[in-house]
Design goal:
single chain, alpha+beta
């Protein structure tokens, strides 16, 4: 089945009438016990025993030769409980193997005349041995592997990738695990590119750039915000993009706060990490005040009051409860406010093969740095003088990219993704 790449397949058996060809071996006289077509054959001996003709074997499957009684019967589903002298079937029989049933379904070839020809009958009976032999298989490039996933093409428009992907996955109910992108330019013509991974990574990079801008809030780390035009269906579509992008190309939205993603994937977050995520979520000026207040509350006691008013804090703060209050604010901003989005994500991502420890590794590995990019650069061993000079310029350029945004642009230009996916 794996070699043919089909759900089920048919063999065409052709044998000659023994009255016209005496060289063909005769089958022994045996009783046939009545059987029904809806019951699988439980034992080979219940149907045919001790034939003088060797039964053929195809890929480990024993196919018994079908006896033909002297007294004709119209229905192959019913046998006769009497002594009959059987011979080989004079007409071809279609043997269809059904993987889900463990038995062979027999059909008359008269039903196949509309789609089959004489050339389709590949099996012949060997006159000397009586073994059924089959014709050769198609060329290797024509044999499909049934285990390979179906590839589904997604058409998106440059500049509107986020909208198109959300619309596609909002209606896609298939279980495809492999997708390819067909990118259209602004004038509607297709970009000249074959998606071997690079087009998909480029589309995912544009998707997340737009998503961060229009569907989230925050500084270094972001969380999703509720919008009137985003229902549960659309948020689940975003989760499908996360699942597809990470499973297929290793792209993960590392700008979404880790605490929020833990809640979305596992249904709970690590409380010890909420404050760390929150400090990267708030504006830089608020981050400085919060960090200072946690270390020395008295030094920023006046500034912290103004900052906490922006988060509707109702409790009087002091040196003893400041850590507890900041943790509560962080939980409200990162978990409680986007809970509807997290629940929608969870319905899709709850079976994602991730654990808490791997979550931190994902963020760490995908975040680019000059050192990581330099280690990823590969140059030919044998280079000319000009090539060596050019490679040194490239390395110098990467070393001077201290800001994260420049590394993103460089990586996207080289790989299609602004993350260290490869």
């Amino acid at each position: 089945m794996k070699r043919l790449g089909l759900k089920h397949f048919r063999y065409y058996l052709l044998a000659k009438n023994s009255e016209k060809d005496e060289n063909l071996p005769q089958l022994a006289s045996k009783k046939m016990r009545p059987t029904k077509s809806n019951d699988p054959v439980k034992n080979d001996t219940d149907m045919v025993q001790d034939y003088s003709v060797q039964e053929p074997s195809v890929s480990g499957i024993q196919i018994p030769l079908i006896p033909q009684p002297d007294k004709p019967f119209n229905d192959l589903q019913v046998g006769y409980e009497e002594e009959v002298c059987t011979t080989l079937v004079p007409t071809p029989v279609v043997v269809e193997y059904l993987p889900d049933l463990d038995y062979f379904e027999l059909q008359s070839t008269s039903e196949m005349h509309e789609t089959s020809t004489t050339d389709d009958l590949l099996a012949v009976a060997a006159e000397d041995s009586g073994i059924v032999q089959f014709g050769s298989l198609p060329p290797n490039d024509m044999i499909l592997d049934a285990t390979l996933p179906d590839v589904h093409e997604i058409t998106v428009h440059r500049g509107f990738v986020c909208r198109d992907l959300i619309a596609f996955f909002s209606h896609d109910q298939s279980n495809n695990s492999k997708f390819e992108i067909k990118m259209l330019k602004e004038d509607g013509t297709q970009e000249i590119a074959e998606d071997n991974g690079g087009v998909m990574r480029d589309a995912l990079s544009e998707f997340w750039d737009t998503f961060y801008l229009q569907y989230t809030e925050g500084n270094s780390y972001k969380v999703s915000v509720i919008r009137h035009d985003m229902t549960g269906t659309q948020w689940r579509a975003v989760a499908k993009v996360i699942k597809m992008g990470y499973g297929q190309e290793g792209v993960f939205p590392i700008k979404l706060a880790p605490s929020f993603m833990q809640q979305a994937i596992f249904g709970q977050c690590n409380d010890s990490e909420v404050i760390d995520s929150f400090l990267k979520f708030v504006p830089m000026i608020d981050k400085v005040v919060f960090e200072t207040s946690l270390k020395d509350f008295s030094s920023v006691s006046e500034e912290i009051v103004d900052v906490l008013d922006q988060y509707d804090v109702k409790t009087l703060m002091n040196e003893k409860n400041i850590h507890k209050i900041v943790g509560e604010i962080a939980h409200k901003e990162l978990i409680q406010k986007p809970m509807f989005v997290a629940d929608s994500f969870h319905k899709v991502l709850q079976n994602t093969q991730l654990v808490g420890e791997e979550m931190a590794l994902i963020y760490s590995k995908l975040l680019p740095s000059p050192k990581k990019v330099l280690n990823a650069l590969i140059f030919p061993k044998d280079m000319s003088q000009d090539e060596m000079k050019l490679s040194s310029y490239v390395k110098k350029l990467v070393r001077e990219m201290d800001q994260y945004q420049y590394l993103e642009l460089f990586l996207r230009f080289c790989t299609g993704s602004d993350l260290m996916t490869k």
